[in-house]
Design a protein that fits this description.
mainly alpha
Length: 124
């Protein structure tokens, strides 16, 4: 016998060689799911004692106190703004009256100046 016959392809016999394999049909292995975490870190069940709940209540109570303080500050700021607005509005009304009075005086002076230029008597 010669060894040249081994280089020739032999017919493949068996069920696995004749089956068509699809990659999408294969199951996913652990190496293919490296990005996923399957288990949680730490213990699954935790039992909290009295101090845990006391601390939780203190924390929530402090949050409420802080929120009330912030709201009181906001109320105080709004009241100060309203007071300032009222004072500025009174000042505005006062200045408007002063301007109208000065405009009337200016109109009188302009009229007197015009009469003096045209040599008319002031009574006219």
């Amino acid at each position: 016998r010669t060894r040249q016959g081994t280089a020739m392809p032999q017919p493949v016999v068996g069920v696995g060689a004749l089956t068509e394999v699809q990659v999408s049909g294969r199951p996913m292995t652990a190496q293919g799911m490296a990005g996923m975490k399957t288990g949680s870190l730490g213990p699954k069940r935790q039992i909290h004692d009295r101090t845990y709940y006391t601390q939780l209540l203190r924390k929530k109570s402090q949050e409420l106190v802080d929120e009330v303080a912030m709201l009181n500050k906001e109320i105080n700021d709004i009241q100060q703004d309203n007071t300032l607005y009222m004072n500025l509005e009174k000042r505005y009304d006062s200045l408007v009256k002063t301007v109208r009075s000065l405009e009337g005086d200016l109109a009188d002076f302009n009229l007197a100046t015009d009469k003096q230029r045209t040599d008319t008597r002031p009574e006219e």
